[in-house]
């Protein structure tokens, strides 16, 4: 039997339309569920007060602080390393065996699942380097985990800066480093910031790599050697141990909304970076 | 502060080389420390008894992880069965059918799915998907099926964005040639565009597999974590990642080494998948 190709064409088009909206629908449903279920429990007090009774009562303030500290300190370490690597790969060397090996390293790091980062951070930072479950161990683990994202996006951003700008700078007898810091990097900033924001989002949402390195203490971390918990870890413990569904939904709302906002900023910056040179 | 510009350039270059080498150093450290902790146990218990052993009782000297290896692959293929067709058809829609404005809205929206933390997926799985399976299909609900559904959704962003890029990189002239011969849009897509983008699409599936097999928190919340090979899609199971995450916090001695052995097996599987995916992408470009 032969089906009319025009009929198949129409049929497929409708099918693909439905499929695309079904997939977007999943996203909408996930966000809607979290919002409707979480909204009644999120208020000023929930955000700014301390948890009581393992999180059954009270708020999530320490875990918000823990999340912010973890994310900020991680990008503080990862940004210079990542942007430096990207500058090296794009400006200071030609494609060679050496850059291939470095790119292989970056690709491989990007492919390692977070639980293996957790396993590594646990044995290396927590046990061998005797940091214990601490903010520092968490920060160092996450730094390594987000490094590939920062390297890749920075590299793309630096590559997108037109050659002419560099040539003009060199013709004014600027050195390579002056050209990079005063001409190339300022133009590449939106792209680099995209990578940083995506990394922050990843650090905020991460659980497996954080729970085995930073631990899950409910107290407010006051030094690098204190254990602490991020919102994602707090949410995991509330949900898995069935401590409180209400608080779990509330925490999920704060968590998901912050990540979505961070990613929206990242996309905004990305569009800005793309439209700049095209 | 160094005044001599030539010396400064030299210094900058060396600092940047060091930074660039740091990624390699980290990769090396990760391998060394996971191997260093896990390998002695392979030596002591025997490779075969670990990889092909059926019994995981680490406090009693049994370290068989065969059921977990099988389970990891089962959930990965389950995720692929659900996520690959959905993701590919979304990518086709985005690349070939949607208007420019819709694309501008849909693509970032779909990529936002990637930002939702895995614990949230796991939680929604526990609260919605597990009870639906328990009530309408059977079993406890914590199952291969539930895990495959959640992982299938979680790999969508990977599959969509990489197959989308592959489809977009097919030259416009291919399509025009096909249209000129009187082919319909769908004939063009499935006989010209998809074959041309084949290796990129396969790479997106393999990277999706890598994501699924490495996923942890969502899986331990919905898989049920039973220590045997599931005999139906409604049976609970435990993956390699789940094994590590469930026991690492309290494991000591040989038990902890056993978790590192599990990590080694996982690392090897991931490296192979990434290698295949990169090979597929590079051959295309």
Overview of the structural elements:
The complex is a heterodimer of chains A (278) and B (285). Chain A is mostly helical. Chain A has two domains: 5-40; 42-276, MetI-like fold, CATH 1.10.3720.10. Helices cover 76% and strands 1% of the residues of chain A. Chain A is built from eleven helices and two strands; from the N terminus they run ααββααααααααα. Chain A has helices at residues 5-38, 44-48, 61-91, 97-111, 114-128, 135-160, 163-171, 176-205, 208-211, 231-240, 245-276, and strands at 51-52, 57-58. In chain A, strands 1-2 form a two-stranded antiparallel sheet. The radius of gyration of chain A is 23 Å and the shape is globular. In chain A, 49% of the residues are buried. The model of chain A has no long low-confidence stretch (mean pLDDT 91). Chain B is built from 13 helices and two strands; from the N terminus they run ααββααααααααααα. In chain B, α10 (198-214) runs antiparallel to α13. Chain B starts with a helix and ends with a helix. Chain B is globular. Chain B has helices at residues 5-45, 47-51, 66-97, 100-112, 118-136, 144-154, 156-168, 172-180, 185-196, 198-214, 217-222, 240-247, 253-284, and strands at 56-57, 62-63. Chain B has a two-stranded antiparallel ribbon with strand order 1-2. By secondary structure, chain B is an all-alpha fold. Chain B folds into two domains: 5-47; 56-284, MetI-like (MetI-like fold, Orthogonal Bundle), CATH 1.10.3720. Chain B is 76% helix and 1% strand. Chains A and B meet through α1, α3, α4, α5 and α6 of A and α1, α3, α4, α5 and α9 of B.
């Amino acid at each position: 039997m032969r089906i009319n190709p025009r009929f198949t064409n129409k049929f497929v088009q409708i099918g693909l339309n439905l499929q695309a909206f079904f997939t977007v629908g999943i996203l909408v449903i996930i966000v809607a569920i979290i919002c409707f279920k979480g909204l009644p429990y999120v208020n000023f007090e929930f955000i700014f007060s301390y948890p009581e009774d393992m999180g059954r009562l009270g708020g999530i303030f320490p875990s918000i602080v823990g999340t912010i500290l973890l994310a900020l300190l991680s990008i503080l370490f990862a940004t210079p390393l990542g942007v430096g690597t990207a500058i090296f790969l794009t400006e200071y060397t030609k494609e060679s065996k050496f850059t291939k090996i470095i790119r292989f390293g970056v690709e491989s790091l990007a492919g390692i699942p977070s639980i293996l980062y957790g396993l590594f951070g646990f044995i290396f930072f927590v046990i061998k380097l005797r940091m214990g479950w601490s903010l520092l161990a968490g920060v160092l683990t996450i730094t390594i985990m987000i490094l590939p994202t920062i390297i890749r996006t920075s590299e793309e951003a630096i590559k997108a800066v037109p050659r002419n700008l560099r040539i003009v700078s060199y013709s004014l007898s600027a050195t390579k480093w002056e050209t990079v810091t005063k001409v190339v990097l300022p133009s590449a900033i939106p792209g680099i910031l995209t990578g940083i924001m995506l990394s922050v989002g990843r650090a905020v949402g991460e659980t497996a790599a954080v729970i085995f390195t930073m631990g899950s203490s409910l107290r407010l971390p006051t030094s690098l050697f204190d254990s602490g918990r991020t919102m994602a870890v707090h949410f995991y413990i509330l949900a898995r141990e069935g401590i409180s569904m209400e608080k779990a939904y509330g925490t999920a709302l704060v968590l998901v909304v912050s990540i979505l906002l961070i990613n929206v900023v990242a996309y905004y910056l990305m569009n800005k970076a793309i439209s700049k040179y095209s | 502060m160094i005044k001599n510009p030539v010396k400064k350039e030299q210094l900058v270059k060396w600092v940047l080389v060091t930074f660039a080498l740091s990624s390699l150093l980290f990769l090396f450290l990760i391998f060394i420390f996971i191997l260093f902790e896990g390998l002695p146990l392979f030596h002591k218990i025997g490779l075969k008894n670990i990889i092909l052993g059926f019994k995981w009782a680490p406090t009693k000297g049994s370290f068989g992880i065969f059921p977990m290896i099988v389970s990891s692959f089962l959930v990965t293929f389950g995720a692929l069965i659900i996520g690959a067709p959905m993701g590919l058809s979304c990518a086709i829609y985005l690349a070939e059918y949607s208007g420019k404005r819709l694309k501008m809205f849909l693509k970032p929206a779909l990529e936002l799915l990637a930002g939702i933390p895995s614990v949230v997926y796991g939680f929604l799985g526990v609260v919605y998907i597990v009870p639906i399976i328990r009530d309408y299909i059977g079993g406890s609900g914590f199952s291969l099926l539930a895990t495959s559904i959640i992982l299938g959704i979680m790999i969508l962003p990977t599959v969509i964005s990489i197959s989308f890029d592959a489809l977009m990189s097919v030259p416009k002239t291919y399509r025009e040639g096909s249209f000129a011969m009187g082919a319909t849009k769908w004939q063009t897509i499935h006989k010209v565009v998809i074959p041309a983008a084949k290796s990129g699409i396969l790479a997106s599936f393999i990277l999706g597999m890598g994501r699924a097999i490495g996923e942890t928190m969502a899986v331990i919340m919905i898989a049920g974590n039973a220590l045997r090979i599931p005999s139906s899609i409604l049976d609970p199971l435990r993956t390699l990642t789940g094994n590590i995450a469930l026991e690492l916090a309290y494991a000591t001695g040989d038990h902890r080494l056993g978790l590192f052995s599990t990590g080694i097996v996982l690392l090897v599987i991931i490296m192979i998948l990434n290698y295949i995916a990169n090979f597929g992408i590079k051959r295309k470009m």
